[in-house]
TrEMBL record, chains A, B, C, D:
Assembly and binders: Homodimer.
Domain (Acyl-CoA dehydrogenase/oxidase C-terminal): residue spans on this chain: 247-396
Family in the record: Belongs to the acyl-CoA dehydrogenase family.
Domain Acyl-CoA oxidase/dehydrogenase middle: 133-235
Pfam families assigned: Acyl-CoA_dh_1, Acyl-CoA_dh_M, Acyl-CoA_dh_N
Organism, as annotated: Isoptericola chiayiensis
InterPro entries, per database record: Acyl-CoA_dehydrogenase, Acyl-CoA_Oxase/DH_mid-dom, Acyl-CoA_Oxase/DH_mid-dom_sf, AcylCo_DH-like_C, AcylCo_DH/oxidase_C, AcylCoA_DH/ox_N, AcylCoA_DH/ox_N_sf, AcylCoA_DH/oxidase_NM_dom_sf
CC cofactor: FAD
Protein name per Swiss-Prot or TrEMBL: Acyl-CoA dehydrogenase family protein
């Protein structure tokens, strides 16, 4: 057992850290300005392209992708880098082409795509020439139960016809998003986990109707393409657009979720670290009743509790990454569920405390905290709500 | 001891309940539409006027005001009515002219205003012909510590000259807001709690500059006039605009806070009740893995925990109201602090659970939950943060 | 609505308060000495008799019993008196003949007993000439599910034959305990809630075998008769010893539980108040690192949190009592479950904090805290564990 | 970074695991019997000697001691072994001569003892021919603040004279305990952390008076020598009995605490694992209302929450051990404080849940849970209470 990171991780982490402090954090006000200057524009703002160019020049590109197509890092090596990008969830992941949902989509295409599909979609995604969305969640059912999916994908000659309603297709409000990976049922009579398939639907296919943007606690997340509700109204794509095999949709979704969940947790820890750094700075500067916040018992207690939670959970995330690397995602299921449950809840507590440290500024847009809170809060729902994972993990433990 | 409400309370509660269900809740989508149709307009939307007319016709008007100027209710009688308005914080209080910050401002004017001040400002406020704001909080200091207030109110002949920067002046983004009650220091060298005074500043006085709207978790609260940052740049008002006495500002602010805090708590309980009602409905309609949510252990547990918290805290709020009525606000300080601490935190837990019941819909604008969460979260900061009250309450207990 | 206690309650509370401070609290060290002096003696210690005589002389006797047989108090009137007895759970309730399980047993005998049964058992219990136990819980089954009870009560001519194993028969280790009220199945084939009956079994009946005393966190509770495991080995009693009707056992047990649960909650609040009083005293006397505990943030926070929890829950207990008085125990079920869930958990948190205030003394017998903790902890299990009540309460709410 | 234990650790863990299951756990009922058979005897029971012989034969001896005098293991290697001994805190550590307070005392003697002191005391301790106690805590002061220590160690010619009152001298009730390491002030006028010294006081020295045994939640812990209150009444020892240097007491105490704290945490995790294993077994066997506990939502949730907490905190303990091995105890201070705060609190929550799973059996001596709870609860006080460490850790973080 050894808790020291390897040389490549250490080196990359330094580069990412420098990039974060020198380029990304100072670009946040620019992003805000560019968003304010173009109120109805959902395309990515110019600052994103600028940062991408710089990131690429530094070799900070596609770090999430384990194969030779990406940086070839293990999950364990990627973890501290992803954490650093969580300090600026709005800019750092997208700047380094490591942002969801493109990451998961690239993984799917890399693993299950045909050469033609890879050429059409994976290559431009790896180059960040286009963006993509993942259309699984539906408004009418509890999407944690895949058997309830209502969207139909019906074969009709050489085409698939997609009919259904999706929402929370993150990124899909942006015209930069060209590809929707859509999950639906090809065979509702098959065994429970073999009913679903995925098809690749170009966003400009006739019948694709972007209904509206959704908000998360009042935020439209326009900086990364928002969250769309989409109607698929007899949308036709050639059969070549099937991803993987018919009936393979559920298995592919599961394969996609493992890395997705751990990436979210890694970044969430970075968010917590930034919040804590902000709290520390504020506590040194402000006083009430003649005493600096940093010398008040409750502030010290909050900082200490937060520190302990972060340290313990980071180790659990790292161990999970190590297990995924050494025994595979399936055998790391207990750990993946554990961090999926524990990290966003802990980060929520930490953000709640830090908001309290900042007072009214904490809930406003003058600090990044409220937006962080909103984004993190939705992690407790996305990819399966806390209680589904708790029940599943508990069941597995009781079976042993 | 008797836990049954009196006849007048019962009767009024039924009227408010009917008004809420028949008029207010159905008007919420109308409000959303009217807001969407006039994106940059901060004036109150037409639906508010419609509801006001109906409320007034029902006798549901100025119920908060204890004197003959209002409905003449005790705090204990008002409590369940205020709770019901908390089901729709966006519309019910304003419809019944019981919305902060006007309520506190009317109380100040009724108690400390000269006849001329009452004629100019209290009368139109009681008629809801104008709105008002309260400018106390400042961006540069911890406003829970009144001694830190930076705004200066300097006498110059027959005028006061106000200089300073305020924020979180709720309502002041709206042109309907005509009056700002501004707290500042008239004598920085006086005893700590006699340095502050309040002056009445018409919003259109030269030198008043509305800098920008603030957001709460992404919400601009445009439906009730938003929250403004305001610069007072050598703003001159006649000395007649002094409210109360020079040096009386701190005491008046404290007097204003007692009722304000209990009103917030009453309404917060109504918010929690509505959330719980929504959760109950949802839990009956949705199923996961073949089992209705309403039959799943964790949902039952959440509902039970929420019910117990609401019941216990409602009683504490009612007892606080009773104490304010019978022994006065000062002697009810422990109880006022208790509910100020406990209610918003409990409501936050409840809203967090109900958001989880709703999944992704819970954080979106399709349900009122996320906006409720944001509003309630800010109660833990407004009028003194949790930890200031905890420390003060603990100190008082340890002294006994 | 009115939160002021009536005159009789106020007067009695003053008397009980005086009795507590003048007689009971000073008697605790005497009790400890008398216990130490007679290590294997399970009879009540002489100090108990002394206190009883004094309590009776003060009119503090059988206050729990609502009928003319007792003090004729309502639940609402009894509540603050019971709370005061909770300051010294070891001595105050027994001194005033208001101690479980005799209270519940007296209620059963008063309501369901025949005149002969009342003469034989109720009278001596009312006089505190004997003690009694209630034998319901069994080691082999989850006793919150009455359908699982294994003890058989078989009719054989003019006798009932009782066979089974019980435990947690509180008080039954003491030779002063003369009567066991035993719950068992007379008809395992009847409807689920009509299988059970209760019989009166004198403790010296042949076949009654006291197996062993049980401990609660290491405490044998010898001061109030301990907790016995008992085997009933073909124990024969005359049919006249049936309490109520055959098949009426479940309903009688439920009737018994309502008041029992609220009494426990009332006393638990008194326990919490005493703990808080001890913490306050300690915090004023001790210093660490040059600062009195009473001026340290965390101590203030604990005291404040505890105060708020006690105040809110006391009101819920009082309202529950009022409901039991006005609409009856059945209609007060939600409230009874609410306090059963919430009070012992809150008191546990409070005791845990106060133990921490006392450091090592807190877990020792030098302070009453650890024993209080143990007693209170078992309340979360007795009369149905937390989670059974949470599930039941949640289910009822979701049904509405 | 690598999360796999090394070969020696794996091998030793298997041996300890076998020893635990084959020898230790089956010996617990024997220990209970032997304790019951000799009610006033504080010497170690025969079963301990039997187990020691077996442990030694297996090479499971003095594993805690890093130097060649012990097993030569690193902290990281020892951690999983210590955890396993925590499954049976009453027997496993003592059987393997890895029980506090002897472990800390042996470390002190090994590091600071003279050859003569080592021959007299360390050798017999390493052989388990004698036991020892550590007398630091005092009843009259908050012992987390070393400056408050009241015991005086006055030099008088060739002797030191010790005067003072100590308590919580764990093990000292047993006649097997021969050595007391006593902390006191040699120079109250020196700098704050140079006032204290330690002397070796044979337990049979004239003037040493064992006042009484203390209890922890009703447990006297007679199986491992109890906890003594001791008066030192002009106790004279030769100056050769000084441990280390005059004024070096505080530093030695700190040096002793680092390993002590991590050992406690390691074992506490084992305690939690055993509790969880018991809960799992119980949940499979018991049913309520026709449903096995293992299929009830709340039980699954508890098990899942407990699993996550254990996994995260075990990693933090292991990393702390690794830091102690690689950068030293001082630089691992933040992590040592973190686990000291977090582990006992988490284990308390887990034990509380498991007690609830067991119902009334959980608080009794039929299950080890209540005794585990009592022991673990005292960890939140021993070696500095939670809040002292929280404040210290928070202060350090805010300083960075």
């Amino acid at each position: 057992m050894d808790f020291a990171p390897d040389a490549r991780t250490t080196e990359l982490a330094e580069t990412v850290h420098r990039f974060l402090y020198d380029q990304v954090l100072p670009a946040e006000p620019t992003l805000d300005r560019q968003l304010a200057d173009a109120p109805d524009d959902w395309t990515f703002r110019p600052i994103v392209d600028e940062l991408r160019a710089k990131a690429r020049a530094e070799g900070l590109w596609n770090l999430f992708l384990p194969s030779e197509r990406g940086a070839g890092l293990t999950n364990l090596q990627y973890a501290p880098l992803a954490e650093l990008t969580g300090w600026s969830q709005r800019l750092a992941p997208v700047a380094m082409n490591c942002a969801a949902p493109d990451t998961g989509n690239m993984e799917l295409l890399a693993e299950f795509g045909t050469p033609a599909q890879q050429e059409s979609w994976l290559e431009p995604l790896l180059e960040a020439r286009i963006r993509s969305a993942f259309s699984m969640t539906e408004p009418d059912v509890a999407s944690s139960d895949a058997s309830q999916i209502g969207t139909r994908i019906r074969r009709d000659g050489d085409e698939y016809v997609v009919t259904g309603r999706k929402w929370w297709s993150t990124g899909a409000m942006s015209p930069d998003c060209r590809l929707l990976i859509v999950m639906g049922k090809t065979d509702p009579d098959a065994a429970r986990h073999q009913q679903q398939s995925m098809v690749l639907v170009p966003r400009d296919t006739p019948g694709v109707r972007i209904v509206r943007p959704l908000t998360v606690f009042g935020y439209d997340d326009r900086d990364h393409g928002g969250h769309a509700e989409i109607v698929f109204d007899d949308v036709r794509v050639p059969v070549e657009n099937l991803l993987g095999t018919e009936g393979g949709g559920f298995a592919m979704a599961q394969a996609r979720l493992g890395p997705g969940r751990i990436h979210h947790c890694m970044r969430a820890l970075g968010t917590a670290e930034r919040a804590l750094a902000l709290a520390t700075e504020r506590a040194r500067e402000r006083s009430t009743f003649g005493v600096p916040l940093s010398e008040q018992g409750v502030i010290r207690e909050w900082v200490a509790e937060s520190r302990v939670e972060i340290e313990a959970l980071r180790l659990l995330v790292l161990k999970t990454a190590w297990l995924m690397d050494t025994v595979g995602n399936r055998k790391a299921m207990t750990e993946i569920q554990s961090i999926k449950i524990a990290v966003p809840r802990a980060v929520q507590r930490i953000l709640d405390r830090v908001i309290q440290v900042f007072g009214a500024a904490g809930v406003s847009s003058d600090q990044p905290l409220a937006e962080m809170f909103a984004g993190n809060r939705s992690l407790r729902i996305a990819d399966g709500p806390d209680e589904v994972h708790l029940a599943s993990l508990g069941r597995a433990q009781l079976r042993r």
